[in-house]
């Protein structure tokens, strides 16, 4: 008997669950949410034939060729991250890893139409319905909304694959971004500082076409907080930085970030919507050390704080020791 579907659970390739008396098989690996169940997210789950123990999808559901996996211990042991091959994203459209690295505006009109009609944007729509803080919907044109949805689902896809690989094989270095939800902070999350009675960790999340760096804590409303355009944005689904500080160090700097002057390689943070790299920073403000972001375009470290963002001119950047 398949396990019952539960929110807040990571489902990897090959997963089969039971929900409302029916069995569903994974299409796109993801972390489940309460309002993101199998019956309403066909881009993520395929309903199976209730009378067929062989694992075929229900005949009234769309069939995804070449993506059926055997859910056994050998497959789990030899798990391959989904970014290494094509993965269906909706109604029979396969999106390969190389294509996911492209911006929506870099795709030709024919491919855009295939993705729209064939369901290639359904996964992103499901993510938006699941409560991802992606962009201010009312401020975007229809084409901008499609571009943002495309970028959002590609970020989540890569984050899911990275998280699955981390859980299967462990860390591949001293710092790894893994997907996280809510206030349940992983034990291996990197500690930055203490504010009042709560501990601050490093997080990042997709917003308005970029990946913004912020802070996480079990004391926050949704678990994660990022800053963007002088606003503080609460996020319930985000990536959190886990790792070992024995392989990392904080390097002092100030003003606009000059990566070459650090003397060490900074840890990847995120990116602005225009592609400008963001790095993990920490800064002292109001009797606490807060995680934030730094870049060549920012006058200092920007930290989300008190409903907005604070710029601190003198700060530290997280770097690798080697």
Automatic annotation (TrEMBL):
Top-rank taxon, per record: Eukaryota
PANTHER family: AGAP009604-PA (PTHR31649), FARNESOIC ACID O-METHYL TRANSFERASE DOMAIN-CONTAINING PROTEIN (PTHR31649:SF1)
Keywords: Hydrolase
The Chitin-binding type-3 domain, residue ranges: 2-48
Region (Disordered): 29-97
Protein name: Carbohydrate-binding module family 12 protein
GO cellular component, one term: extracellular region
GO biological process: carbohydrate metabolic process
Polar residues: bias regions: 29-40
Database matches in Pfam families: CBM_5_12, DM9
GO molecular function: carbohydrate binding; hydrolase activity, hydrolyzing O-glycosyl compounds
């Amino acid at each position: 008997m398949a396990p019952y579907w539960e929110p807040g659970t990571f489902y990897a390739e090959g997963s089969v669950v039971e929900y409302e008396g029916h069995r569903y098989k994974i299409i796109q690996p993801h972390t489940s949410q309460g309002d993101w169940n199998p019956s309403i997210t066909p881009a993520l789950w395929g309903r199976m034939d209730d009378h067929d123990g062989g694992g075929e999808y229900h005949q009234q559901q769309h069939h995804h060729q070449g993506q059926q996996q055997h859910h056994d211990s050998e497959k789990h042991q030899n798990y391959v991250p989904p970014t290494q091959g094509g993965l269906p994203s909706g109604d029979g459209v396969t999106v390969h890893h190389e294509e996911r690295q492209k911006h929506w505006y870099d795709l030709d009109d024919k491919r855009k139409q295939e993705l729209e009609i064939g369901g290639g944007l359904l996964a992103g729509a499901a993510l938006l319905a699941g409560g991802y803080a992606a962009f201010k919907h009312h401020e975007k044109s229809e084409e901008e909304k499609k571009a943002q949805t495309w970028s959002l689902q590609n970020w989540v896809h890569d984050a899911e694959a990275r998280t699955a690989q981390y859980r299967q094989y462990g860390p591949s270095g001293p710092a790894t971004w893994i997907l996280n939800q809510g206030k349940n902070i992983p034990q291996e999350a990197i500690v930055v500082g203490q504010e009042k009675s709560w501990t601050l960790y490093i997080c990042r999340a997709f917003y308005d076409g970029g990946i913004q760096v912020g802070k996480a804590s079990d004391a926050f409303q949704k678990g994660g907080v990022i800053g963007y355009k002088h606003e503080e944005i609460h996020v319930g689904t985000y990536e959190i930085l886990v790792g070992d500080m024995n392989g990392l160090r904080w390097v002092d700097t100030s003003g606009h970030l000059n990566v070459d002057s650090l003397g060490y390689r900074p840890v990847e943070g995120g990116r602005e919507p225009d592609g400008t790299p963001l790095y993990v920073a920490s800064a002292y403000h109001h009797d606490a050390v807060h995680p934030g972001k730094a870049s060549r375009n920012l006058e200092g470290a920007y930290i989300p704080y008190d409903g907005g963002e604070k710029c601190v001119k003198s700060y530290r950047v997280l770097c690798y020791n080697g």
